[in-house]
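Bumping with the actual sequence this time:
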Amino acid sequence: MKALVFPLGFGGYELDVNIENLGYSLVKGNKEVLSTDPKEGFVAELIKFGQSTISMAIKEARNPDSPISLVISVKGSSLSVTWNSKTERDLGEEFRTRDRVYGAGLISPQYFPMEAEIKADRFPAGNVQLPYLATSSGVGVLIRSYEPLSVGFRKDENGESHFYLRRRGTTFNYEVLLATD
């Protein structure tokens, strides 16, 4: 497993990036506070690994002529994550955490904290709502896009919360907001 450890320099966080499965984990102390689910069928090549940016070129085994890129940048006390593709495709992430998850800007009934399954194929983002999710450990995910999203939330048999955010297009960008204390 090719993993890169990226100390973030604030709040005791580190970012662990697994190049082989295109997943990453945020760790605070010895506790994993948020991670993305691995992506099968992709091959990644590290383009840049610096103090504030990680860039990867990615090819999908079933569609090698349509490369995508992933850029993770540290900006203040947050991470900016951007997926880009030359062709329109489904882009997004599925996250998991053992913490409680709180959400806003969803079109289903609100559960605080979220405990029941939620699924919406077309989140109608507009001028009033932006989808965001926050965990009880102080990590949040914010989508700054006014384009429709697919969103979902579920708890697995081990008590982990899984939530996904996806959209069809050529770019998908989100921020991971981190509590600094």
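The tokens above came from a reply further down the thread. The chain has a mean pLDDT of 78.
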